[in-house]
Design goal:
There is one protein chain. The protein is elongated. It folds into two domains: 70 residues; 82 residues. The chain is built from two helices and five strands, in the order H-H-E-E-E-E-E. Helix 1 runs antiparallel to helix 2. The chain is α+β, with helices and mostly antiparallel strands and 172 residues long. It has a five-stranded antiparallel sheet with strand order 3-2-1-4-5. The longest helix is centred in the middle third of the chain and has 32 residues. The two termini are 22 Å apart. Strand 1 and strand 2 form a beta hairpin. It is 34% helix and 24% strand.
Length: 172
Amino acid sequence: MAYRVLYDIAQEPPFEIELVWLSGGFVLLGIIWRLVQRARDRKRIDPPKRTGFTTPKMLIGFGMVIAVIGIGLMGWDNWRLRKAIRNGEAQVVEGPIQSWGTERVRTARTDKREYHLYERFYVGDSIWFGYYQDVGQAGFHNGKNPTITFKDGMLVRATYLYADGNDDPPRS
């Protein structure tokens, strides 16, 4: 049977580009703030000593934390996933989707979007897939717009790895 490729991790970036812009924006804002601050301090007769945690240093530090966590960890997770696939750890399952469903899972946020959408299904009668949509993670999480519409009985072929640790569902 001929299948159409809907998701290929080799075609995906290792991290979300929005995090690059966000962390770069904080670092750039901190640098510009410090340069303006230094220029104003030079015009003063008695310039203040700026030691300790100043606002520009905090902005730069915050941008670096976003870069390390958002870009570094996501890139590392993506690299581990691709390496496992290259090393032949991935398995393939084919069959109809069964027990497909979604559910809203509440988060601690109190703004407009205070939930994640959790999607789950079996492929064939043996392999269970479950993931939160639209969250930053390596691998498939059906977060693209438009999302892929799954339904019971749909024939699919999925390449997957078992999750790290003692989790039951495979990490797709």
